[in-house]
Design goal:
Belongs to the snRNP Sm proteins family. This is U6 snRNA-associated Sm-like protein LSm5. The structure is a single chain. With about 80 residues, the protein is mainly beta. It has 1 helix and 4 strands, in the order αββββ. Strands 1-2-3-4 form a 4-stranded antiparallel β-sheet, with no helix packed on it. The longest helix is centred in the N-terminal third of the chain and has 7 residues, at about 15-20.
């Protein structure tokens, strides 16, 4: 009997799910008062990510918005770590 080639999303490991998001726009909630939206280009096993076409939102009364071409985001800074 052949194994089912489709994968149930609820059975994906976290790194498998992130891998499926390569080249997609993602939002990352930081441990600080920031959220980052960008296109995921790559990641490693420590949660470090390379994002392009990035917008950084500061979640403060000032609400500063910063646009960046590319960033290397340390995995220790996102809220899921």
């Amino acid at each position: 009997m052949a194994a089912n080639s489709t994968t149930n999303p609820s059975q994906l490991l976290p790194q498998e799910l992130v891998d499926k998001c390569i080249a997609s726009r993602i939002r990352i909630v930081m441990q600080s008062d920031k959220e980052i939206v960008g296109t995921l280009q790559g990641f490693d096993g420590f949660g470090t990510m390379v994002l392009e076409d990035v917008t950084e939102f500061e979640v403060t009364p000032q609400g500063r918005i910063t646009k960046l071409d590319q960033i290397l985001l340390n995995g220790n800074n996102n809220a899921s770590s």
